Amino acid sequence: MKTAWKVTMSAVLLAGGLWAGSMLNLTAEGAGVGSQPGTAEDPVVTKSYVDQQIQKVLGGNISPPTQAPSATATNAPAATAAPSATTAPTKAPAPGTGDTSITGNAVEIVDVKPGQTLIAGAGAEFIVRAGKAVIYSQDANGVADLTDGVDLANGVAAPTNHLLSFPRDGRGIAVQDGQTMKIVVMVRGAYTLK
Length: 194
Description:
Largest sheet: 6 strands, antiparallel
Low-confidence stretches: 69-100
Shape: elongated
Order of helices and strands: HHEEEEEEEEEEE
Structural class: alpha+beta
Strand order of the largest sheet: 1-10-3-8-5-6
């Protein structure tokens, strides 16, 4: 009798729980989407509209942000000012002269041939994209591999597709000994190819 009573009560509680859950589900709308974006209740606005409203609230005391050229087909490309010497890349003599350098935030692809060394300026960043490279350093300190969070000493293989940071001048990368192929490096910041 006790077993039949337990089975009956279990079935009643299970059925009651299912019925109560289905009744609560009919009234629960928290999980459903009440309004779609772009309706009167939830309008989609542009950045320029938000900026205008902020300027109205602040009394127009802030300068409008500079805008990048629009990518829409109806707008003509915006004219840009002449690049300033502090932000735009500046190149020295043509490649192949042994003294190529670039400064700024632009990323440049540099090919380093066997026997050449790519010396970084202070704060430069390299990513070895192809080929086998080794770290070059004139002192005991190495180069920071920001991808793995380790310090790479002079002569250690530079891993491909890792962000390498050069905190001071005089450090760089070179083609690994015995390699006949060039290395391809993405460079941001100042560098010298020797």
